[in-house]
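Annex B, item 7. Sequence and structure tokens for protein A, then protein B.
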Amino acid sequence: MLNVNKTLYIPLYGKALVSRKGLFLHDQKAEEIWAKEAFPLKGKSRSKWLAYYLGIRSAVFDQWAAQQMKAHPDAVVLHLGCGMDSRVLRVRDENHSWFDVDFPDVIAERKKYFTETAAYRMVPGDVKEETWLESIPSSGCAIVIMEGISMYLNDEEKKGLLNRLCNHFDHLVLLMDCYTTLAARLSRYKNPINDVGVTKVYGTDDPHTLENGSFTFVKEHDMTPSIFTHQLQGMERMIFRKLYAGKIAKKMYRLFEYKSKHP
């Protein structure tokens, strides 16, 4: 498996850990997969604080996805760079077709634990390329989830992907977390993904740089809202907020929402 694919085990571990602790989200599938796979993580990638952060990040994306599915009952859902995430089980209803997209070897691994249905498909492909999108029916609206993926795409690759999505769908809403350029520079030395062999990542400071004629920035979201951080108690909450919810953290990680609509 490519090194970038190995990063999928870091959030899987985090979600399994917080689920076992009864924090932020319930993810029985993550617990099941981690119990069987237990990819040997080391260093910062096994940090309890990072696990809390990744659990909260996933819960924020879950909350947004559920809201968008209510607002767009006829939309299809695309989870790009899905890894081993079980969001499809946590939030999908029977009214939305859902497509999980990732590298072919990741999808092959997913198929050990997830079953396709008429409304749920796993699509192998590299989001930097065009061919994977051909297997997804074009439709009026798409809800696009990009969690933990944008940092592996430079700005031109991100723009190319977003342009292809805009051309494929009449309308889309999208949520994407990003490193800042500062975080990308520092990641060479201090990022847990280094522990699985990844050293090259990219940052985005200005969300407007990804806009085009039909794709526009909507707003920035809080990465660590109090509804989730307040589930931690005492010293744990204080330490976590200092590490992941303080001023320094907000200079490193951003969460951007976009939308597009054809004229």
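Protein B:
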Amino acid sequence: MNRFKMNKYKNMFLIIIVFTLFLGEIVLVNNSYFINIDNNVYNIIKTIINDRNTIIFKAFSFLGTEIFVIILCIILIVIKKGRGVAFTAIMFVSTLLTQAIKIIIARPRPNINPLAIENSYSFPSGHTVTIVVLVGILLFWLWQEKGSKKKKEDKNKKLCKKIILTIILIFIAFNVMLSRIYLGVHYFSDILAGITFGIFYLLSTHYYIYNYEKVPLPFKIKK
């Protein structure tokens, strides 16, 4: 068995593990095993609720909305063209799948004091799936970027920039997720499921493109 096939099977195994975790979360949520954890997490977060933080977290929450994603997609289509179209397609499909799961699970929103208005179901968190997929693609682009041969000093600077950008993107993603609990529109278990499903979706998309290369989507690496 050559190295390519080994990597292919490893990736498939990882996809199966993550999907199994997601199914496990569905079972646990449906059987109310997350109630105490969800309540404890919210009780911790509600201690930081104030007018200033509400404004901040509403701003972070906006980064996971359809409006923001549409604006970003338009910008990327103009700047990156083919990559922008591919990015748009991936984000669109992830939104459809997330909404379908929400309807199937049909978990009501938290019955607490919400600081935002949401009319859809709660599980999984759509904002979380969106930001995981979005940041995942951006990080892939960032770390797969290959520049021309430069001096060692320049390469070190480039590496530092990549690390800083990675930290910033992860920080943004974390706060988008946290904002959904802070605003009282999601349980912690919704966020956890959103992370798991978002990772599953990214891994599956990468697996398909890298192994079959049917379409020039963002995960295709130039050889």
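Comment on protein B: Residues 215-223 have pLDDT under 50 and may be disordered.
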